[in-house]
Amino acid sequence: MGKKYVRLDKDNAAVLLVDHQTGLLSLVRDIDPDKFKNNVLAVAAAAKYFNLPTILTTSFENGPNGPMVPELKEIFPDAPFIPRPGQINAWDNEDFVKAVKATGKKQLIIAGVVTEVCVAFPALSALEEDFEVFVITDASGTFNALTRDSALDRVSSAGAQLMTWFGMACELHRDWRNDIEGLGTLFSNHIPDYRNLINSFNYNNSDKSEH
Amino acid sequence: MGKKYVRLDKDNAAVLLVDHQTGLLSLVRDIDPDKFKNNVLAVAAAAKYFNLPTILTTSFENGPNGPMVPELKEIFPDAPFIPRPGQINAWDNEDFVKAVKATGKKQLIIAGVVTEVCVAFPALSALEEDFEVFVITDASGTFNALTRDSALDRVSSAGAQLMTWFGMACELHRDWRNDIEGLGTLFSNHIPDYRNLINSFNYNNSDKSEH
Amino acid sequence: MGKKYVRLDKDNAAVLLVDHQTGLLSLVRDIDPDKFKNNVLAVAAAAKYFNLPTILTTSFENGPNGPMVPELKEIFPDAPFIPRPGQINAWDNEDFVKAVKATGKKQLIIAGVVTEVCVAFPALSALEEDFEVFVITDASGTFNALTRDSALDRVSSAGAQLMTWFGMACELHRDWRNDIEGLGTLFSNHIPDYRNLINSFNYNNSDKSEH
Amino acid sequence: MGKKYVRLDKDNAAVLLVDHQTGLLSLVRDIDPDKFKNNVLAVAAAAKYFNLPTILTTSFENGPNGPMVPELKEIFPDAPFIPRPGQINAWDNEDFVKAVKATGKKQLIIAGVVTEVCVAFPALSALEEDFEVFVITDASGTFNALTRDSALDRVSSAGAQLMTWFGMACELHRDWRNDIEGLGTLFSNHIPDYRNLINSFNYNNSDKSEH
Amino acid sequence: MGKKYVRLDKDNAAVLLVDHQTGLLSLVRDIDPDKFKNNVLAVAAAAKYFNLPTILTTSFENGPNGPMVPELKEIFPDAPFIPRPGQINAWDNEDFVKAVKATGKKQLIIAGVVTEVCVAFPALSALEEDFEVFVITDASGTFNALTRDSALDRVSSAGAQLMTWFGMACELHRDWRNDIEGLGTLFSNHIPDYRNLINSFNYNNSDKSEH
Amino acid sequence: MGKKYVRLDKDNAAVLLVDHQTGLLSLVRDIDPDKFKNNVLAVAAAAKYFNLPTILTTSFENGPNGPMVPELKEIFPDAPFIPRPGQINAWDNEDFVKAVKATGKKQLIIAGVVTEVCVAFPALSALEEDFEVFVITDASGTFNALTRDSALDRVSSAGAQLMTWFGMACELHRDWRNDIEGLGTLFSNHIPDYRNLINSFNYNNSDKSEH
Amino acid sequence: MGKKYVRLDKDNAAVLLVDHQTGLLSLVRDIDPDKFKNNVLAVAAAAKYFNLPTILTTSFENGPNGPMVPELKEIFPDAPFIPRPGQINAWDNEDFVKAVKATGKKQLIIAGVVTEVCVAFPALSALEEDFEVFVITDASGTFNALTRDSALDRVSSAGAQLMTWFGMACELHRDWRNDIEGLGTLFSNHIPDYRNLINSFNYNNSDKSEH
Amino acid sequence: MGKKYVRLDKDNAAVLLVDHQTGLLSLVRDIDPDKFKNNVLAVAAAAKYFNLPTILTTSFENGPNGPMVPELKEIFPDAPFIPRPGQINAWDNEDFVKAVKATGKKQLIIAGVVTEVCVAFPALSALEEDFEVFVITDASGTFNALTRDSALDRVSSAGAQLMTWFGMACELHRDWRNDIEGLGTLFSNHIPDYRNLINSFNYNNSDKSEH
């Protein structure tokens, strides 16, 4: 009874970043832009940190949708990048699916813009092919909360796990002892409150007279 | 485990617009009127654009509920229009069900006012008869968010897919290459942010000295 | 797949009003007091109008919880009234369950204060005994939205239908022609916007010179 | 420095109810309808209770704006009622100003729909003629909070006192001993929380065995 | 004591639309895009309807800010249009001030994007030169509510009147009898609730059998 | 231009706690009860800590309003306590005013329930007699935000300073060196976040092996 | 169909308090700090009151996360306290699981910081091992509502029951007669509104002349 | 009538950053942490960009308040830095005032934590000494919106100008032509939406085949 606990495994997960494009981002209004930018970069930084195979795709870069956010391309210079010629559901693009399958991973972490289309469509398609799907809800944005809630109801009902970037990073890491400094840096860069905790702690444990 | 991915198919879908009447609209307070008007017209425009058989129905036009919003009747001058003599659940009206079945479609896209009655009742009835039901949550309105959330929980639990008009249009279209200009116009007319993207893009790609 | 459409049937439904007491009402903060009072009285008025067997129960009237709201007792002077000596879950009180079963009804419409206790507990108990349970979410109140949402998740997951009073009245009535004036009066008394529609309509159809 | 304390005085105050019409009320979205209806009736009940001269006015009753809310006309059957033939600012209507001045009162309590027009315009005009103006903000409604806040900034900057109906009643009454039961009844009828306090109190001080 | 009632006068007012550009609009997040688009077009329609001299200005059209929203240029094909080569405060641009003064009007109605810059700066400058300034708060947009509230506090403290487009139209019109149909059309086009009232009214007063 | 900086001075300030009664508190809905209880107790603790003369007053303790919150009476066992026989504005009660004047203080810090009556009325009266009035907005509660905002506009326009309890404590204390531990304890008891900071700091500066 | 009614049983339940640490608490922003502190202490007080075996655990006390909130350690001086050396999911720590299993209880009540990690991870792990899991949503905190809602969707879909502390206490107590004073005290200490009800009630039933 | 337009002048303005300390930041809950961090760094970046003399001050760095946020110290390595030994109002610290006056500037731009204390107190003191004070409301944070609004009412009433960082930067810059790239970079770094506009624009104006 109930969904099984499908636990993210860094050896078995790939990340799909779908349509975080400079034009499309102006449509995102369910999450504040400063926070949303941070969340998207945090997912990317986590993917990088855990060395997860990552695939980037865009829809119509040469039109109003605009190009993929440059920071993402800089973080993943060698990742497969599939600018789709027209397919709205990335899973309808053969190259994209081939790239996904080439990773050999069973778990797909998906974030994108806008949630109900660029995230939900490939998530639903991947579930149909028995992938384990994790939607990163706070790195996926759309027009408003009603739209988001409807989309998340749809993907969750179909079997996807709803997560946010911090939980994703924690579930992948498993144990702080695997690398305290690495994870701490990730959190410090993307959680101002955590950075403050670290800075207060370090200050208290330093020779304060140096300051 | 989990709902299947039931994907909207423009060759197999019909649209039911239920009780968008000038009086009843004053009851809608979970979505702002400017946005709600836009969403309802967007569903209608999408139905028209994809050539989906569309059925209009009303409850008691001659009383306080008021007539069907005139724009909807203008968009669908030849659509079956079933003013119900009293049935609250449109599915209790034989003519309505007959009109639905006459379309020969298996997928029903439903929007209406108010969500927990005019949408939820026929949605639940249609699910019982094994239709695939898509509730367009942002073109369906009601008294407040608690009422809406209760209604959406009920229809989702019974098997309906919750969508919003933009996702509906994207899932029906499948591929921009089927008609870039047509879909772009639909979005430009109903998403101010998208219209701005298009206008900026066109301006940048035009001979600006003409302006 | 999915919950069945369990449709309210006025010949097969009873109403349980649980712990709407003058003291406990001060705990309700997820719904504004003017609206909440209206919703509770609307459920009561609907129960009366549809002649549904109705059972009132309270917890510790002689202590800080205070007595049942007097209006409810006035509306149902002859209804079974079960002041519980201590059981928190009304279903743990034999007299209450006996009264429920004595109605011979299979469908239970429940509202109360507070949602996660006085509503959820008997709702869950009744579901276990195969009653069809309808929680009237807008006539049930509690401390805040998080508490409510947790409670509604629990009862919905267990099989209850979430409804609000207006949907309840509409589903019970089925067809306006059964009694236009009766239902209209119910709505006019409890939905200010609907009352305005009726007043505007009547004015327009009257001899205005009389005014 | 600062506005003077202009204190409402029941011997020197008149009430102006402007354009609470059944059609126009559908425009009010900054206050929930159940609460707004209650607030408007509470101002009226207070005016009645304190015997304040009260003037009703409407704009275009015979058109879409609809008639004055019937309850208000019933509460004040003998009050001057000035249906304005076209003037948007009630103060531009000579009969209205004449009626106001005929009261001989210096303090004007104003509520109406919509705030930035039907309330703000006559409030500003009355201030220019050195009346002391009290805008009842919770019995005045409009499209949204931004509109209301802009309107209230305008009238407050011009010298009006912003009050709500409960403060108005308290300032007029001055001392509970003038009539405990009368004021208590007013509050009981229009403040559910206060009614609960009274009912709990009475119950505790009654012979509970009677219940 | 208090600001004077400065009343909009259609013979003495000009409208300044500042930097409603397709790029800058993506910065506006204190008002929903559907509503904001409507409000801006409503101010423009009102300016047109009342024949007020109107001046358009933009900042850096050829860069990321994008061109003036095309609809505005279409509504005012012959209005002075001053694309500023660099001045952030439009009042620092001589051509703009010249155009304003050329109107010979004393009252300036200002709306723009973003509120704290493109609206507040010229508003403050104009107040210094003893213009009567009316900021249309709902046709001016910015990053968030805190920014807006700070900006409105600044301009109001400096003497500007805060208004919204509906109040502006009503204060300019003064009396419905000046043109019932014209004003009604303006409202019907930009207030969905009002359009519904009109449609219900017309339907009730028509020969319904025609429908 | 502008209000002067009237700075709280612990040698010249008295505290008035008006009508924080167990019944009336159920009317407070503009601040969450956990937070409001904390804020009221924080004002009381600050008054105690700074040794400010404090006056308690109530309205109708023997009726539904209920008694003064017991904690307040326990904190100030020897403070003047004036149960008013009927005056709604505490300043209309001679004993109260006498008690205020007996303190010999010029600065009055006022908090109470409900804001627009029990706080605003004596605040306005005291301003008229040239007291310097500080309204503690977060220890004063009322029905909703609109009521509060209207009340605060009224008292601020009349010359009162709006403060919250933390600012009050800081302005009275002036310099941490006057008593680090005392102020720290006050903050630790009433600001969970500050308590956490202190606990983290102490832990880091302790011999952690002890834990 | 639907989750079974798994009812909390005081003879079969244990409580897990996970990572309520002074540093981590600064991350909690979905619940106000005054309320959150109260909720956490209320869960602890309830655990104590019902004598439930309780287990405390922390992550990295000696770093920025800070120590367990001291009050919790004081309430449970003899409880198993498992400071985890690195495991993020407490269930990955053998000592923790051993301590849980040593209680011999089948029902686990879990609260912690942050919800999607410290609560969700052990909750999902425990469900896999067929424990009955109750997540106390209002004593679990995280970054924002979207994160919380995603986490709660995940644990509820996996079979956990969502509850809040008041419902937990009521379901454990079953019947007021088991100990009226004990439960009343618990509520009085953690629900200001309930405390007010009790104080009003006691005052009304005392010899008031004593006050 | 009304405040004068006091216009920021980059040759006459200094910036005061008060108590942005790693511990105190955990108290800020009226602005989301991602956004607040961005706003504070944006004010700092603007101060740097416009070469404004900037003064940093802290309260009790060695205690729970924690050290100044390191980024601020890095941006202004040579700025006067005044760790106050105890004064809560920075203006009570002679060194601070000396440093302020040593700048020779008349205009003071102030931001800090928490708004009602660390910002409001020195702002009010500076106004008394006839400085022109600009409070940067979005780079100043505090416990909640009520506290903030009370504080801003106090400083605005005393003559301060309320601004946000973007308006501050624009008013200082005056004309884009002074340095298009510099201002553009500032905006690109601190306004995600603006960065997107720039990236879209550049992409459209580049040789896209390069991408």
Automatic annotation (TrEMBL), chains A, B, C, D, E, F, G, H:
Question: Which SUPFAM superfamilies did the record assign?
Answer: Isochorismatase-like hydrolases (SSF52499)
KW Hydrolase (keyword) present:
yes
> Which superkingdom, per the lineage?
Bacteria
Keyword annotations from UniProtKB, A to Z: Hydrolase
The record's section on InterPro entries has:
Hydrolase_YcaC-like (IPR053152), Isochorismatase-like_dom (IPR000868), Isochorismatase-like_sf (IPR036380), YcaC (IPR048239)
Ranges for domain Isochorismatase-like come to 14-165
Pfam families documented for this protein: Isochorismatase (PF00857)
Molecular function GO labels? hydrolase activity
Name of the protein in its database record: Hydrolase
Q: Which organism is it from?
A: Acinetobacter rongchengensis
